[in-house]
Amino acid sequence: xxxxxxxxxxxxxxxxxxxxxxxxxxxxxxxxxxxxxxxxxxxxxxxxxxxxxxxxxxxxxxxxxxxxxxxxxxxxxxxxxxxxxxxxxxxxxxxxxxxxxxxxxxxxxxxxxxxxxxxxxxxxxxxxxxxxxxxxxxxxxxxxxxxxxxxxxxxxxxxxxxxxxxxxxxxxxxxxxxxxxxxxxxxxxxxxxxxxxxxxxxxxxxxxxxxxxxxxxxxxxxxxxxxxxxxxxxxxxxxxxxxxxxxxxxxxxxxxxxxxxxxxxxxxxxxxxxxxxxxxxxxxxxxxxxxxxxxxxxxxxxxxxxxxxxxxxxxxxxxxxxxxxxxxxxxxxxxxxxxxxxxxxxxxxxxxxxxxxxxxxxxxxxxxxxxxxxxxxxxxxxxxxxxxxxxxxxxxxxxxxxxxxxxxxxxxxxxxxxxxxxxxxxxxxxxxxxxxxxxxxxxxxxxxxxxxxxxxxxxxxxxxxxxxxxxxxxxxxxxxxxxxxxxxxxxxxxxxxxxxxxxxxxxxx
Length: 509
Fold this sequence. Notes:
Elements (H helix, E strand, L loop, with lengths): L6 E5 L4 H12 L3 E6 L15 E4 L5 H7 L5 E4 L9 H19 L3 E7 L12 H14 L5 E6 L2 E2 L4 H12 L2 E5 L5 E2 L2 E2 H10 L9 E4 L6 E2 H11 L6 E5 L4 H11 L4 H10 L25 H15 L26 E9 L3 H9 L11 H13 L20 E2 L2 E7 L3 E6 L5 E12 L3 E12 L1 H40 L14
């Protein structure tokens, strides 16, 4: 293997940084082997056919030794933050990784750790930062030349620190906050993190040290929240720091007001009370800054939000992060979205159910609660929206772009899918998805999904306010579409002199 293009082992390839590092290493000409406990999670990545995969756990010496065979550069990008006794777990894993790397003849370890304040003893740091520092030290003492990159807040859609910033700012137009919102930090764009990680594969063999990495701006968390609100088009946030929220209470507070799991929110919040500012920029000797220098905070924020804005034009798929291209990102990453999901087995063929679906907006209206739909249309009209516009354009087939009252046909794929996008005045974006799958015995499965992507606190409040009505409106839609399809199929069979078919199904919405 060429020293210019070594075989790189990437641990945590299904995670946030690892999943983004792999294509960057490939673009730089390196060969890549991905280590994952569940390689199946990597399926569907556009680069999966260009890499080797190894099923292994960093705590399993046998599998780890096999995964490191022939590896020259090993990226250590795993940690167990939030897990039970995660400090001890990370310590054991780092030792195991270091031992196996040395035994396999790996020539370089690269670790992305956390930036820590230099004027506070390590044993006085939060468990999260203390563990990150300990892991770095264990790898540096491994006998394998190691580069430890120490970063503070990574700005990129999907990063835990950035998602906490996003969720707090979007959900709280006014907030009483812990005083750590005025602590200085030096964030770094994920693009610069990846650039430096790739550069570390080519470091000279005598380099065995930590490097502080950060962007050009030193800011406070309060400043970051205000900038986020401005760039996201939200109203100016009112922030009142108070001294009574302890680090533990801060973590509970973050876990309460955001969808970030409490076991992750607590260690992150506890670490924010420290000033973390870059004290040296020695990495530039080995990885010169790009023209114009590292990305500033506001530029990095703009790039992170651009993916969200682009994603807002598309309905998020089930199980996917709505504002980020990597499906392995956590469910709470990329901004929030809500969904009302219902399904029902139907005693009619896929074609019969599709015929009922494709007739929506005609003589059957929206198949449920006509007074409720009409009232919503009048409310929309009063708010300056289009209101109810007389159903569909005619008896012919639906086409993309057709209007159905305050809906617009966004996608149609007979006999499987009809997707409508709401054009009413909303504090967010909404879709209604009607899908039909074939089932054994000349039956089918009807699936319905109403999706809402809120914008700001008003969006969340809107969804919570209208959710009680969904049981009436959307359940009625499912029931009536199924009943219409079953009735029409029985009538068609009777007219053709054929048996009446299966009995109507019970309500399963």
